Amino acid sequence: MNAVTQASNAHVSTVKLLIDGEFVESKTKEWRDIVNPATQEVLARVPFATVEEVDQAVKAAHAAFATWKTTPIGTRLRIMLKLQALIRENMPRIAQTLTAEQGKTLPDAEGDIFRGLEVVEHACSIGTLQQGGFAENVAGGVDTYTLQQPLGVCAGITPFNFPAMIPLWMFPMAIVCGNTFVLKPSEQDPLSTMQLVELAIEAGIPKGVLNVVHGGKEVVDAICTHELVKAISFVGSTAVGTHVYRLGSEHGKRVQSMMGAKNHAVVLPDANREQALNALVGAAFGAAGQRCMATSVAVFVGAAQQWVDELVEKAKTLKVNAGHEPKTDVGPVVSRTAKTRILGLIDSGVKQGATLALDGRDVKVPGYESGNFVGPTVFTDVKTDMDIYTNEIFGPVLVVLTAKTLDEAIAIVNANPFGNGVGLFTQSGAAARKFQSEIDIGQVGINIPIPVPVPYFSFTGSRGSKLGDLGPYGKQVVQFYTQTKTVTARWFDDATVSDGVNTTISLR
């Protein structure tokens, strides 16, 4: 059974829920169109699930946990081995769907899937990732050891900008640790996510272990307050992430929220000029700036300020077009609402006195006149109290600041409330060491503009970009999805032996 089926009363497909191993039609009366952002074509309709359907999904996961938690690790990891092979085999097909519903270019869509695939591959190492510890004879004949045991029903709430990567950050690691899972994809572009879910079922994930519900705030709140949900992982906006963290925490859940950002790149005059400028342009305008790790602020230090004109010229060369068209660099933003918000922030920058060095507001794309296109946009003469600096624009807009020294640049970055990522471009090891030591940002790139770590490490955004103390993948997420149980044991050779009554706390 497929996750998307043709509606009987229209030529538009409907997206299904996945509950207890079955793709089922929602009984909701509230639906949303999934729209191709380059053409405004309606691709499918997604249901906003009822609270009762969320309850059914959670209860199915809870029932499945009884047997899944005792499933051998080897069985779990072999499912992940099958899943990674299926994802690799189906990557081109999923990328086409992702581009159609989200707008990013085909190569970037494949990158989206691949970065999620890396997490699935890492999940195949669960045999070593989930090992406990053991200490022999910590006291007279006493051994102490730890067990890393699954929690139960976990849930994931994912954003529109990475409909493949972020779900793959979540449910594979949760499930391979022995938990069951309820996933709520973005209602804006769930089609590629559902294709991955279909592959997970094909790979052998048992019924009830993975469930999917769709919807908005009502569904999110139902997940956050459900008594059987033990942990929630969220990636998305700061406003929603803060709400999820507070509501989930109030109801006794473990919660990790990866939220908004304002990522800076500091450019020193000794940097490799060509490499630095190319990296800035790619990181600022790739995926139309719709990445939580996009470089949205460039801080040019000292003589590097002379490079700004060249940066603008490089940005002008980028090709704006539909994501599936060859050689496209910048696709559309995800929706008309997003475009309106981005254009409003650009207008505010002009009104507040910034210099619009490159204006992408009126870009025209022949053949896609209805598309949600915003061209690469660059502001100079930006002040830190302007709306274009204080807000996460989440579009193809780069704001440029200047600083006289590295110390001044570090102060600018550290004064910003967000802490997802930062980059430094330099040829100086001493400057790099100073920077990585003094900067108060969770993820640092040295001559790398988007410092997202590989899955063997953990995503470590900080401050205003993150709530919760454990990252969404890598070693930290095994801690998030498991409960550490400590066992202290003593065995006697002769059961009749007695040391007598001891009323002290010592085990010796």
UniProtKB/TrEMBL annotation:
Any single Pfam family the record assigns to this protein: Aldedh
Single biological process term from Gene Ontology: thymine catabolic process
InterPro entries with a match to the protein in the record: Ald_DH/histidinol_DH (IPR016161), Ald_DH_C (IPR016163), Ald_DH_CS_CYS (IPR016160), Ald_DH_N (IPR016162), Aldehyde_DH_dom (IPR015590), MeMal-semiAld_DH (IPR010061)
GO MF term set: methylmalonate-semialdehyde dehydrogenase (acylating, NAD) activity
Keyword Oxidoreductase: yes
Listed EC numbers: 1.2.1.27
Swiss-Prot/TrEMBL keywords: NAD, Oxidoreductase
Family in the record: Belongs to the aldehyde dehydrogenase family.
Protein name (record): methylmalonate-semialdehyde dehydrogenase (CoA acylating)
Species for this entry: Paraburkholderia acidiphila
